[in-house]
Design a protein that fits this description.
single chain; 14-stranded mixed beta sheet; globular; about 200 residues; Immunoglobulin-like
């Protein structure tokens, strides 16, 4: 179980994306994600250790998973809502996100205004890149009206690293999905994140 702490209360715990699907090239970039909460919402920070990341997509809602991309899929209220948000963002800070039950069912595309409210910041350095964004509680309530932030509650989530069109296509998970079927849209493989 991962623990989500309050911003400013100490060091933010990090989780690592280490479970990669097999490939001939063996490319497995090191990726860590730290999540905390504040008065506005949940803040996510990714560190991605790869050089020359692919960033062809520059607009929100493009297929950023084809670029160097990190993803956080999250059920913020698993006790009252079966749907989850899939936040997918590339090294340019372009994001594709929707609210859905699985890959195909009840898919609701978020709006441009929703994405702007995340305040996405991406930065590429010599041998790594970073992404920061904050998911406002108000945004969650827009799609889950009965949602209320509460410490002691548990959200269900998974984190991923991918790059379909990169030099070395790769697919990694925090909590491994079905090893025989490459599909990140499998909420049954989400793992608990405890809010303290």
């Amino acid at each position: 179980m991962y623990t989500i702490v309050k911003e400013g209360s100490g060091e933010v715990p990090r989780l690592s994306i280490e479970h990669y699907y097999p490939s001939e090239h063996g490319y497995r970039p090191k990726v860590s994600l730290g999540i905390c909460y504040n008065q506005v919402g949940f803040h996510a920070h990714f560190d991605v250790f790869e050089t020359n990341p692919l960033g062809t997509k520059t607009k929100h809602f493009e297929y950023v998973h084809e670029d160097s991309c990190v993803e956080w899929f999250c059920k913020f209220a698993p006790k009252i809502c079966d749907s989850y948000f899939n936040f997918e963002v590339n090294c340019n800070g372009a994001m594709n996100v929707s609210f859905r039950k699985n890959r195909h069912d009840n898919v609701i595309k978020l709006t441009e205004e929703d994405v702007i409210s995340l305040n996405i910041k991406a930065q590429v350095y010599e041998d790594f890149w970073t992404v920061d964004y904050t998911v406002p509680y108000k945004l969650i309530q827009k799609y889950i009206p009965d949602y209320r932030f509460k410490t002691g509650s548990v959200i269900m989530a998974n984190a991923y690293k991918c790059g379909d069109n990169t030099e070395f296509p790769h697919y990694g998970c925090w909590n491994m999905t079905d090893p025989d079927v490459l599909d990140f849209h499998k909420p049954e493989y989400f793992a608990p994140m405890n809010i303290i």
